């Protein structure tokens, strides 16, 4: 097992094995009933998957275990260092509707998703917390490139030199297309602030109508506390040597504002100035505290 280097696909740095198989990734065609959850890594993908899976199973956690709709390996990560099955294999073994996850920026999402008018949920998280979370993920996921020291990591983040490319381009890309392509654009901070409101928002987007009790149960089952002990959600099903949970657990903190523990005043100033510059063309209502 090794930490894969990054290789550019149409200007976006992706893990080399994905880049090598790019043609089969690009050719993938979903079923119209499939749903896509798209995120920049560490923005709240697993949380949203868990909510959607429970919504589709009327809040029945046992039914989720028996017949999961969620593909927990990003389907386009078609490399599969043993013992992990490839996302594409998992996907092909399931019948639609499937909940597919991807970290690809919008321009690299295969055309079939748009042609088939699949529903797409995008989850965005403020840049600073997203970066802190990604930093720890890069430390514990032995297939990701070495993160190096925090100081240098900030620069890589600002330049878009991490796996899946620029956070700035990612969040802007989906934001600009959200109305035209009927994308439900969610924020991690909103989910933290009022999980019930956001669960209901997702429910409506999926054209479902569940009882108050069921909604309440889904909110409870998808709390950080419960998910941290759920082996399907906490990724302990991916053990060493791929994920080293002793370095940093997958379900790490689950907070808004943890970034204050990482940025020095100088780093903060540099980052904020650069942020202004990179985000000046859009007005996406990110919050770095709630
Ligand atoms: P932290 O590293 O800040 O703790 P992803 O699923 O996209 O990889 O995102 C993982 C991040 O979402 C981690 O952030 C994880 O703790 C957080 N997360 C997962 N489930 C959560 C929940 N139910 N509530 C709050 N945060 C959650």
Automatic annotation (TrEMBL):
Which UniProt keywords are present, listed alphabetically? Catecholamine metabolism, Cytoplasm, Transferase
Compartments (UniProt record):
Cytoplasm
List residues of the Sulfotransferase domain. 32-281
UniProt GO molecular function: sulfotransferase activity
- Which GO biological process categories is it annotated with? catecholamine metabolic process; xenobiotic metabolic process
InterPro entries listed in its UniProt record: P-loop_NTPase, Sulfotransferase_dom
From what superkingdom does this record's organism come? Eukaryota
Supply the EC number(s).
Answer: 2.8.2.-
Question: What GO cellular component term, any one, is given?
Answer: cytoplasm
Q: Which family does it belong to?
A: Belongs to the sulfotransferase 1 family.
Query: PANTHER family per the record?
Result: SULFOTRANSFERASE SULT (PTHR11783)
User: What protein am I looking at?
Assistant: Sulfotransferase
């Amino acid at each position: 097992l090794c930490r894969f280097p990054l290789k550019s696909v149409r200007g976006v740095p992706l893990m080399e094995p994905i880049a090598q198989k790019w043609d089969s990734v690009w050719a993938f065609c979903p079923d119209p009933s499939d749903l896509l959850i798209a995120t920049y890594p560490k923005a709240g993908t697993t949380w949203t998957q868990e909510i959607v899976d429970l919504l589709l199973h009327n809040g029945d956690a046992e039914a989720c275990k028996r017949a999961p709709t969620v593909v927990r390996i990003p389907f386009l990560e078609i490399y599969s260092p043993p013992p992990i099955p490839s996302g594409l294999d998992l996907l092909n073994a399931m019948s639609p509707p499937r909940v597919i996850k991807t970290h690809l920026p919008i321009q690299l999402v295969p055309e079939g998703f748009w042609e088939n008018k699949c529903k797409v949920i995008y989850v965005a998280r403020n840049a600073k917390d997203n970066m802190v979370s990604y930093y720890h993920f890069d430390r514990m996921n032995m297939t990701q490139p070495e993160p190096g020291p925090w100081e240098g990591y900030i620069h890589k983040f600002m330049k878009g030199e991490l796996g899946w490319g620029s956070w700035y381009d990612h969040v802007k890309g989906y934001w600009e297309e959200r109305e035209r392509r009927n994308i439900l654009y969610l924020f991690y901070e909103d989910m933290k602030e009022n999980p019930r409101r956001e669960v209901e928002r997702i429910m409506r987007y999926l054209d479902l109508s569940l009882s108050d009790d069921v909604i309440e149960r889904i909110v409870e089952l998808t709390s950080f506390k419960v998910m941290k002990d759920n082996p399907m959600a906490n990724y302990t099903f991916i053990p060493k040597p791929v994920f080293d949970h002793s370095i940093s657990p997958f379900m790490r903190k689950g907070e808004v504002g943890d970034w204050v523990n990482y940025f020095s005043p100088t780093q903060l100033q540099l980052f904020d100035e650069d942020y202004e510059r990179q985000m000046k063309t859009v007005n996406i209502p990110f919050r770095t505290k709630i």
